[in-house]
Amino acid sequence: MNIQIFGTSKSFDTKKAERYFKERRIAFQSIDLLRFGLSPREFDSVLRAVGGIDKLIDWDKKDPQIDLMRYMDDAAAKEDKVYENPKLMRCPVVRNGKQATVGYCPEIWQRWT
Fold it and tell me: 18: burial class by Cβ within 10 Å (0-12, 13-18, 19+)?
């Protein structure tokens, strides 16, 4: 099992995800999403695993770019904008090989162990 947690230091859900794996003594790699982001292949893999760009975007965030994306129909344009600006993603993005989740999802992570 190769767990990667992409998140930010200010995200409470990222901290909860790290605590979840620490309490179960499962090794994980923590990656700062704002500093390092996702590689193009990782980004595509996460999009396929979670079911599209709309599930990856943090629609609750107060950001003018998110307000503009609400009216965009082109999924590729949304993907480009989110890839270039990772702060628009919901945190944490947790990967286990080709599987991935967005947000705090302990019920899914339990199946991975």
Answer: middle
